[in-house]
Design goal:
single chain; about 425 residues; alpha+beta; Immunoglobulin-like; Rossmann fold; seven-stranded mixed β-sheet; six-stranded antiparallel β-sheet; 21 strands
Length: about 425
């Protein structure tokens, strides 16, 4: 069975006077025996001074729960950091022979001996996680779950160096903003640079255990951690724009491979059942009566080998010229829906930029605009966040982490 399934959405009819079109490429990771042989996860947990109280207690309880319940086959380790980083649990491959309660006892014993509640030097936690996973091979999917409740207190250059080192080692960092005093820009950049999943806000300590458990379960089912989407286009064609539309709207760029045909789109790790939708705008030098305008392929690493899976002809975008305005003026509802969510992303970005600049009046205007778009597109999660954002610091930061989007293709896959 293939690891990925493709589907495309577009209007196949094009006017003889038109040379560009919009489409959506959808990629789903299948339940497959080709899943990664091993998944390694290091928890990188903030234990700085601002973590004292309920947040710290919930982090401890959540970590102990993971030591007991993480699926067999996963390699799990725990690192904590404030001004410096310490290893609370070494990287251990969990299986039926491992005494989980001894791991919990080790964690408790080490936490009692570690000096905590200092400043927030984020790079130290990432660096130590890299040491935990530094000798793992390409056949292992490498993750770091990064949890912080505050702003970085070290020079920003140190954090940039550590995050880039994680990217170079193909460790994907998945960040959580804990409580309310965290920097959404930092967490988003950590995810983007390391091709991790987009960060999430966890304002309530009691929700941390559920978030950690769900994320570890998803990671344990990784199909491909180092994957790229290749979009083939005919000679002379050019991708004018490309954005990930689901599960979050992320403006991106497709880089040409160098053969004048293939465009490369990096894809964050995908687990069984995950799917990602991409909106693409393609310009054609010439259409002719009929032309294959785009063909999707996934390229990924499996057990140290490069695997390439191509979509069959039913997944290609094939355009046909017509003089029938009733045909070429048709609007594909999936494409139109995601373009609407792109407008939502632009409005929320403008809102967060205005807030960062201290321009409350402009921010409120963009919030109202975004709220109207969210309501019109049926995006209930963003509608709720934007309604709360007028008076909630956490809601405003949640918006800044990225625009929550509604899947327009998921139901069709079931």
């Amino acid at each position: 069975m293939s690891a990925f399934t493709f589907k495309t959405y577009y209007n196949k009819h094009i006017s003889p006077t038109t040379n560009s079109f919009w489409g959506v490429v959808s990629v789903t990771a299948n339940e497959t025996a080709q899943a990664m042989e091993t998944v390694a996860v290091t928890l990188i947990c903030d234990v700085s001074g601002s973590m004292q109280g309920n947040k710290f207690n919930a982090m401890i309880a959540s970590t102990e729960d993971l030591l007991r319940t993480t699926p067999d086959g996963v390699m799990l380790g725990v690192v904590v950091f404030d001004d410096r980083a310490d290893e609370a649990v070494p990287l251990v491959r969990l299986d039926a022979t491992v005494d989980r309660e001894k791991l919990v006892d080790m964690f408790r014993r080490n936490m009692r001996q570690i000096k905590i509640f200092g400043g927030t030097a984020m790079s130290t936690g990432i660096d130590l996680a890299l040491k935990q996973q530094g000798k793992l091979g390409n056949e292992v999917a490498q993750y770091g779950i990064f949890l912080s409740d505050g702003n970085n207190t070290e020079p920003e250059s140190r954090l940039v160096e550590a995050v880039q080192a994680a990217a170079d080692t193909t460790m994907h960092l998945c960040a959580y903003g804990y409580g309310s005093d965290w920097n959404p820009t930092q967490l988003t950049q950590i995810a983007q640079i390391t091709q991790g999943w987009m960060p999430k806000a966890v304002p309530n300590p009691e929700h941390l255990r559920q978030e950690f458990t769900a994320l570890i379960a998803r990671m344990s089912r990784t199909v491909a951690s180092d994957a790229v989407l290749h979009l083939w286009t005919p000679t002379g064609a050019k991708i004018l724009s490309l954005s990930q539309a689901y599960p979050e709207w992320v403006k991106g760029e497709a880089a040409p491979l160098g053969d004048d045909h293939t465009w490369v789109v990096p894809v964050p790790p995908m687990s069984a059942g995950d799917h990602r939708d991409f909106v693409v705008h393609i310009e054609l030098a010439a259409v002719g009566a009929r032309v294959a305008a785009c063909r999707p392929t996934m390229v990924y690493a499996l057990a140290g080998q490069r695997v390439e899976e191509k979509g069959d002809q039913s997944t290609w975008m094939i355009l046909e010229q017509t003089h029938d305005a009733g045909l070429y003026n048709q609007v594909n509802p999936v494409v139109a829906g995601y373009l609407g969510q792109g407008q939502l992303a632009r409005a929320t970005q403008a809102m967060t930029e205005a807030l960062a600049a201290g321009d409350v009046k402009t921010a409120e205007r963009h919030r109202t605009e975004a709220l109207e778009i969210a309501q019109a597109t049926g995006n209930r999660p963003m509608t709720q966040i934007l309604q709360d954002a007028s008076g909630s610091e956490v809601a405003r930061k949640t918006v800044a982490l990225g625009t929550s989007t509604v899947s327009l293709t998921e139901d069709e896959k079931k």
